[in-house]
């Protein structure tokens, strides 16, 4: 079997590029004490308001358990908190005033990374 075609693997190339892009965002957000995923959680809550954890996970394309760990860390920092829910089985997250301040202060750094990636590739369409 000839495996030489695997050196042009699209999956590997996409994963490599995703890691490069993530490193750029992480570098820009590091001075604000945020990881790229944490910024995305805060920004999504700023956009959507209080949101059920499962729905937020779907919006962000994250596993629920991954989002739960991230939300717990963000909660420890005082940036997110649990919101009231009509269904006691449902965990809803909300942005705290400190979280809004954090995402607003980090936004220019995120925008720098976003603009840099835009210059390198065509922006992706989002839902």
TrEMBL record:
Superkingdom: Archaea
Residues covered by region (Disordered): 104-127
InterPro entries: HTH_MarR-typ, MarR/SlyA-like, WH-like_DNA-bd_sf, WH_DNA-bd_sf
GO biological process: response to stress
HTH marR-type domain boundaries: 1-127
Species of origin: Haladaptatus pallidirubidus
Ranges annotated as biased composition (Basic and acidic residues): 112-127
A Pfam family the protein falls into: MarR_2
SUPFAM superfamilies from the UniProt entry: Winged helix' DNA-binding domain
PANTHER family the record matches: TRANSCRIPTIONAL REGULATOR, MARR FAMILY (PTHR33164), TRANSCRIPTIONAL REPRESSOR PROTEIN-RELATED (PTHR33164:SF105)
GO function terms (MF aspect): DNA-binding transcription factor activity
Protein name: MarR family transcriptional regulator
């Amino acid at each position: 079997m000839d495996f030489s075609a695997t050196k042009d693997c699209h999956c590997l190339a996409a994963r490599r590029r995703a890691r490069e892009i993530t490193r750029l965002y992480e570098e820009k957000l590091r001075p604000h004490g945020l990881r790229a995923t944490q910024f995305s959680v805060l920004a999504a809550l700023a956009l959507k308001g209080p949101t059920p954890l499962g729905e937020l996970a779907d919006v962000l394309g994250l596993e629920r358990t991954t989002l739960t760990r991230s939300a717990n860390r963000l909660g420890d920092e005082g940036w997110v908190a649990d919101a009231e829910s009509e269904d006691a089985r449902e965990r809803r997250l909300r942005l705290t005033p400190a979280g809004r301040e954090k995402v607003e202060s980090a936004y220019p750094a995120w925008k720098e990374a976003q603009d840099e990636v835009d210059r390198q590739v065509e922006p992706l369409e989002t839902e």
